[in-house]
Write a structure and sequence with these properties.
By secondary structure, this protein is mainly beta. The protein contains two helices and eight strands; from the N terminus they run H-E-E-E-E-H-E-E-E-E. The chain has one domain (about 10-130). The strands form two sheets. Strands 4-5-6-8-7 form a five-stranded mixed beta barrel. A three-stranded antiparallel sheet has the order 2-1-3. The longest helix is centred in the N-terminal third of the chain and has 8 residues, at about 15-20. It binds zinc ion (ZN). The site of zinc ion has 8 residues, from loops.
C-alpha cells in the first residue's frame, strides 16, 4: 500500500523539487539580509524581518529534538507500520524538519545524532531519520 507523502505548498516548490526531484537534496532557507537559516519555510525572516532568501543544501550534523511513537495508525496506509516513530530533527541551527524514524525512539535518544535520508516512493519523498554516530550528517 502506498504511503501518503507530505502535503506540499507551492511557495516551497524549490524545496520539494530538490527533495523529490531525483537527487534527494534537503534544502534550508537562508536569509539574504542576515544570513541565518530557517526551516520550515517562512516568507519573512523571523530574525531580521528580511523578505529575500535563497535555498541552500543542508550539510551539517542532525540531532533528535523530540519524538512520539504512533501505536494506532491514523490511516490504513500506515497500519502495517505501527508502531512507528515520528520526530522533529534539527538539521542545522534554526532548521527543524518532521521525519519518520527507522527505530522506536526513547527519551534517552533526545539530543542524539541522527542521519536524515530522503526516501522516495509512490506517495512522494519522505524524510527518514536513522540513529547515527557522532559524525551523523544529513544527506
Ligand atoms: Zn534575516
Amino acid at each position: 500500500m502506498t504511503l501518503p507523502g507530505a502535503p506540499r505548498s507551492t511557495e516551497a516548490a524549490e524545496f520539494w523539487n530538490a527533495l523529490g526531484g531525483g537527487d534527494g537534496t534537503l534544502l534550508r532557507q537562508e536569509c539574504v539580509q542576515c544570513g541565518r537559516s530557517r526551516l520550515p519555510r517562512t516568507a519573512m525572516c523571523p530574525y531580521c524581518g528580511g523578505w529575500e532568501s535563497h535555498w541552500r543544501p543542508v550539510t551539517g550534523p542532525a540531532r533528535l529534538v523530540t519524538f512520539t511513537v504512533i501505536r494506532r495508525a491514523p490511516s490504513p496506509e500506515w497500519a502495517a507500520h505501527a508502531p512507528y516513530g515520528v520526530a522533529i530533527v534539527e538539521v542545522a541551527p534554526g532548521c527543524r524538519v518532521l521525519v519518520n524514524t527507522d527505530w522506536l525512539p526513547e527519551h534517552a535518544d533526545l539530543g542524539r545524532p541522527v542521519v536524515v535520508a530522503v526516501e522516495t516512493g509512490d506517495g512522494g519523498p519522505r524524510l527518514v531519520a536513522s540513529r547515527g554516530g557522532d559524525e551523523a550528517v544529513s544527506q
